[in-house]
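COURSE: Structural Biology Practicum
ASSIGNMENT: Worksheet 4, Part C
STUDENT ID: 0417
INSTRUCTIONS: Below are two proteins. For each, the amino acid sequence is given first, followed by its structure token string. Answer the questions at the end about the second protein only.

PROTEIN I
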Amino acid sequence: QVQLVESGGGLVQAGGSLRLSCVASGRTFSDYAVGWFRRAPGKEREVVATISRLGGRTFYTDSVKGRFTISRDNAKNTVYLQMNNLKPEDTAVYYCAAKSGFYYIEAKSYDYWGQGTQVTVSS
């Protein structure tokens, strides 16, 4: 079992920045790939970014490339999502998820999910 807790969401103006954190407990964190996903009102959940268990491989959905950066600090059991130049269309609940293994992209691959943190970007 892995427990995940997200933090760092909030209200920000367009063009601003936020850094989300996902802290894990329960298992050896470096055994797990981690992803950030989001669900906007009235829309399907979508992948935002994922990172391999040791951090050497990352994936970004096209709409966030060049603006968001995923990273991890396994010594702190934490994965981060640095979000710059935020846009109103980034407004969503952001979730982190974990899966034992090297690297995954699709949400259906992930076994453990946090409760989510709200990000609201005003225009």
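PROTEIN II
(use this one for the questions)
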Amino acid sequence: QVQLVESGGGLVQPGGSLRLSCAASGSIISIYHKSWYRQAPGKQRELVVLITSNGRIQYAESVKGRFTISRDNAKNTVYLQMNSLKPEDKAVYYCNVGVVTTWGSAGYDSWGQGTQVTVSS
């Protein structure tokens, strides 16, 4: 039912910027928590930033001050603005949101397919 489509990834030089988008579609009643994860080859998937269902924003220390999460509720879209990118930011980035798709049901996690971010000179 629910699909999350990430876009905006690509190749950028160190110090450059990218903006990732995560568009949700389908029979969505509401979106609760919103988050971005990333995973580099051979490493565990890590949380980049989270907006809790209460609106609290939590950034990983490694991206604090460089990345910014935002959302457009009318479009059911979450964004990740990434500035001052470093080679260690190279990873596949995944969107993760809590959604409600059926009236009377609790929210559940939905994941995007991932978008590749490569930072290299």
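ANSWER KEY EXCERPT:
Q1: The chain has a mean pLDDT of 95.
Q2: The chain has no helices and eleven strands.
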